[in-house]
Automatic annotation (TrEMBL):
<feature type="domain" description="ABC3 transporter permease C-terminal">
    <location>
        <begin position="732"/>
        <end position="831"/>
    </location>
</feature>
<feature type="transmembrane region" description="Helical">
    <location>
        <begin position="368"/>
        <end position="392"/>
    </location>
</feature>
<feature type="domain" description="ABC3 transporter permease C-terminal">
    <location>
        <begin position="275"/>
        <end position="388"/>
    </location>
</feature>
<feature type="transmembrane region" description="Helical">
    <location>
        <begin position="413"/>
        <end position="431"/>
    </location>
</feature>
<keyword id="KW-0812">Transmembrane</keyword>
<keyword id="KW-0472">Membrane</keyword>
<feature type="transmembrane region" description="Helical">
    <location>
        <begin position="499"/>
        <end position="520"/>
    </location>
</feature>
<keyword id="KW-1003">Cell membrane</keyword>
<dbReference type="InterPro" id="IPR050250">
    <property type="entry name" value="Macrolide_Exporter_MacB"/>
</dbReference>
<protein>
    <submittedName>
        <fullName>ABC transporter permease</fullName>
    </submittedName>
</protein>
<feature type="transmembrane region" description="Helical">
    <location>
        <begin position="437"/>
        <end position="460"/>
    </location>
</feature>
<feature type="transmembrane region" description="Helical">
    <location>
        <begin position="268"/>
        <end position="292"/>
    </location>
</feature>
<dbReference type="InterPro" id="IPR003838">
    <property type="entry name" value="ABC3_permease_C"/>
</dbReference>
<feature type="transmembrane region" description="Helical">
    <location>
        <begin position="326"/>
        <end position="348"/>
    </location>
</feature>
<dbReference type="Pfam" id="PF02687">
    <property type="entry name" value="FtsX"/>
</dbReference>
<feature type="transmembrane region" description="Helical">
    <location>
        <begin position="723"/>
        <end position="747"/>
    </location>
</feature>
<feature type="transmembrane region" description="Helical">
    <location>
        <begin position="768"/>
        <end position="797"/>
    </location>
</feature>
Amino acid sequence: MKVAALLAARATRAHRKAWTAVFAALTLTSLLLGAFGLTLASAWSAHPRVERYAGADLVVAGDQTTRFSAASLGDRETVSAGLTERVRIPRTALTAVRAVPGVRTAVADVEFPVGRAGRSATGRPWEAARLAPYALRTGRAPQRAGEVVTGGGAGRVGARLTLRVGGRDTAYTVVGVADGPGSAIWFTGAEARRLAGHPEALDAVGVVAEPGTDPGELAGRVRKALDAAGVTDVGHRADGDPAAVRVLTGGERGEAEFLAAAPARGELLAALGSVAGAVVLVALLVVSSTIVQALRQRSHELGLLRAVGATPEQLRGAVGREVTRVAAWAALAGAAGAVPAYLGLRALLDARGALPAGLELTLPPLLWPAPLVTAAVTVLVAGIAALIGCSGTAKLRPAEALRERAPGSARRITGLVLLFVGASSAGAAVLQQGATAAAAAGGAAVTMVIACAVLGPWIAEGAMRLLGAPLRLFGPGGRLAAANCAASAHRLGAAITPIVLVTAFAGVQLAGGATMTHAWDAQARQVLRADLAVRADGGLPAGAVERIRQVPGVRAATEVVPGTVLLARSQLGAPELERLPVFGVTPERLAHTLDPGVRDGDLARLRPGTVAVGADRADSLGARPGSTVTLRFGDGQETRLRVVATYQRSLALGDFLLSREDLLRHTSLPATGRVLVATAPDADRKAVTKALARAVPGARAERDPAPVRGEAAEQALAEVVSVAVVGAVGGFTVIAVLSTLALIATGRRPELRLLRLAGAGRGQLRRMLCLEAAATVVTGLVVGAAVASVPLLAFSLSMAGTLPYLPPIQAAVIVSVVALTAAAGSLPPVWTTLRGRYPRHVSPSGD
């Protein structure tokens, strides 16, 4: 133990420069692991904010979760997904709750969209305001159907408001101004039930308990009363998907208000888990290669220690202590920076709108020490890498320890097997869709990068055979570079690996999103045939489409409303619930405003109870015109729809086109739709635009409308994830390339001095080093691009039906970063060696 400690202390002082790169890599590893650990913990404990029901002790609401079960490997497996549309409960729930002992007040709550002066607002009964509680600032509560209370000071008592509800404009008198959001408008209870359009169904019931009543105990009594009354959710749910009404307490009350928060939490956890996995993998590769390279530069020193009698245990102990000492300080430094990095990632998520309204990412004090745990993991990873790095020398007999060993056949076989597995995974991605295809493509990229790291020496040897002839064209420096590269394939392979890593990972992450966006844009331009679009922020009035069609010069008009559905099916034997963006349309003369690229059937037959299906999705479901498909709407209700057509351009329009009436029937707060207008060939578009504005009061007509494109709701989150992955991989790679090339260059100082003594000029040696760096960069970029192209090709063909696409600017950034980093790692460490006319001596250590 004393010998190992002495060796470790001496080696740490003697090789401070070599350990600097290892320290930087371990610091970044600890920082990123700590930041993502805090973010994952924050997402795990996240919950919807409680606002409208903050004054209620309990909230009775529908079950906002849908479930699907299927047999998987002989067992029954169930998956669930959050619902983003309101699941309503019957009005009988209010009667059952009011009869429960301990209930002081039970208030029925409904919510519906309201258009106010061209802006979107929400309407609710005034009785529900007490659940927040919101109090009157001025005026009084509404007592008649024509009276309202506005929120947030947005209005004055006595003012007349024209509100649009259900497509109809009605004048109301403001009788009070209350606290709360400015977009809130409160009606009398009877008027709110009428305007909501479902008088026998409620959004929720807020419960205020009697003083001294325990909320948990009261929740149990309310649960029993609801079960005894047989109260279930409104609507037809799928078999195996129970429709039990929920009784929410504490932080759960926010789930009845912010419906998108719970599903977004699951998506955030999945995305952050994927990022954390990629970061951990890259960290393992970079840290391991950096430590191994640092120890490889000292292989002769370690071999000499074995030759003079050091035991394998002493050697391992010395290296382990040396690495652990460096890793401990680096891990603590990274842990200190993890909290600022976590706050920065939180700010990025908020700035890009990647989180829905109402989702609070909380971090309990108990989880703040999480970076210390990830710091310990970092030290453990460094220790394992150190043992691997010195294991070969430690096992050799002292007489063999000084001999340079070539990579064995076991390494080559392992690399080839990994390469085959990666290519097979990419081939499987071509046959899949959605998240399964993306996961298979990502797995292929990771496996092939590891394979290239294992096969580094042979890749370098093959590359030098190709580049040797071009290098020799650059004179004596080029011939020296060619000879050195050919003789040091093992060393060059270590330098190529981090370049392959950054090129492959960054290429897959950036090109994956860019390919989908490029294909979306191309299809969206092909789909749109309309010349104009009509929209109103508060919703279009009733009969707007019919009035638009009667305007002179209008050839066709189609109302388009976005929404989502869920598709339940078994994927590779496992149940899966996939959320898909869709559109609801009016089919009359649809071909003049939209061109979905119909493959079979007729879109003119699209009516309530029917659906058109994208060609790829139809093939995977075995659907064709005349068959049926089963979908779940955003509120969890299941329906069987008859297929009337299949179409090609599903990237832009989504996998399903539904009737507008079908989609709106299952949408609690419909998103603002628009009417696409195709003008006659001889019509004056400017005159038609003015006529449309007059025909639909409160609406505006847009020339050159934006393309129709069905984008997934989590696109902003995916963009943030890509930025995080590319940034993390880029940081690791800069450190890895700099450290690896700097360690190699430092170890070559005796060689360069010897070449100087043999007569090589400084200019020749500089040219040799530049050409070697260029050969390393070219080989790494080409191999990395080849590795990235295989999974990217599989992903783009399965998802978009196109070739991969990477914006030229992003490709130039990747090449520039790699080239500048390689130059910085290759040349500065040997500047001192190349100074002066002749070197004074040749030191075996390179110092």
